[in-house]
């Protein structure tokens, strides 16, 4: 039976949109487990900082000794608020982005280089004007909702704002790239019951 403390790192937006009910279900099911939850997009050293696992969304994982289990995939969407569009106009093609204010995710190696694929198969990248650079997707979402610029984020950050009609999706003629959500943990060989059961529950609920 799982017991002890479970220490998890997870991005804020993913925790709010997907993780809350899973954590509640897990703790009800396994009452002998306590939880330490770090909501952050920062890069961490799982082993040195004593985490049991981290949940991360990325298009490509860096080389690592960690075990990586893919949980599910989500779309990346380019969006702007209605207020921004009214003030600065709507870009109809990604090549117009250098004339616009863009909000970029600074944890990427090249935050100002956005790759696009047209539905006809044409691939190209655009170097955007980095009005704001930010290392937190939740804060990026708030800034784009406030009309400060155009942003490109995983759909789980944008779900609420899209449902409320606060944001508009740009470039519908272009394919939406995907990022995968992974559970990262130090070792499969010595995986504790509390971690194994949590990963199983993640896979069941999000797959």
Describe, in plain words, how this protein is organized in 3D:
The chain has 207 residues and is α/β, with parallel strands linked by helices. Helix content is 28%, strand content 34%. The chain is built from 5 helices and 11 strands. The chain has helices at residues 12-29, 82-88, 137-145, 155-163, 193-206, and strands at 4-10, 33-39, 53-58, 67-81, 102-105, 113-117, 123-127, 130-134, 150-154, 167-169, 178-185. Strands 1, 2, 3, 4, 5, 8, 9, 10 and 11 form a 9-stranded mixed sheet that branches. It has a two-stranded antiparallel ribbon with strand order 6-7. Helix 1 crosses helix 4 and helix 1 crosses helix 5. The longest helix is centred in the first third of the chain and has 18 residues, at 12-29.
Averaged pLDDT, please? 89
SSE series = EHEEEHEEEEHEHEEH
Low-confidence stretches: none
Tally the beta strands.
11
C-alpha Rg, in Å?
19 Å
Give the CA-based shape.
Answer: elongated
| Count of discrete alpha- or pi-helical segments spanning 4 or more residues | 5
- How much beta, percentage-wise? 25-35%
Distance between the termini: 24 Å
Major beta-sheet overview: 9 strands, mixed
* Helix/strand/pairing category: alpha/beta
SSE arrangement:
Elements lengths: L3 E7 L1 H18 L3 E7 L13 E6 L8 E15 H7 L13 E4 L7 E5 L5 E5 L2 E5 L2 H9 L4 E5 H9 L3 E3 L8 E8 L7 H14 L1
Parallel strand pairs: 1-2, 1-3, 5-8, 5-9
Antiparallel strand pairs: 3-11, 4-9, 4-10, 4-11, 6-7
Helix pairs in contact: 1-4, 1-5
């Amino acid at each position: 039976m799982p017991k002890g403390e479970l220490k998890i790192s997870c991005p804020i937006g993913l925790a709010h949109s997907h993780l809350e009910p899973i954590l509640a279900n897990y703790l009800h099911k396994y009452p002998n487990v306590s939880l330490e939850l770090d909501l952050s997009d920062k890069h961490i050293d799982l082993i040195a900082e004593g985490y049991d696992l981290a949940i991360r969304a990325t298009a490509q994982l860096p080389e690592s000794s960690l075990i990586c289990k893919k949980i599910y995939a989500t779309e990346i969407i380019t969006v702007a608020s209605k207020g921004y569009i009214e003030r600065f106009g709507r870009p109809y093609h990604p090549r117009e982005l250098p004339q616009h204010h863009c909000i970029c995710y600074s944890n990427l190696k090249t935050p100002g280089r956005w790759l696009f694929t047209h539905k006809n198969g044409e691939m190209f990248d655009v170097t955007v004007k980095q009005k704001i650079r930010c290392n937190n997707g939740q804060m990026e979402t708030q800034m784009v909702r406030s009309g400060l610029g155009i942003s490109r984020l995983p759909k789980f950050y944008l779900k609420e704002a899209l449902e409320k009609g606060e944001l508009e999706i740009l470039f519908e003629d272009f394919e939406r790239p995907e990022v995968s959500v992974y559970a990262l943990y130090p070792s499969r060989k010595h995986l504790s019951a509390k971690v194994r059961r949590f990963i199983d529950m993640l896979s069941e609920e999000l797959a």
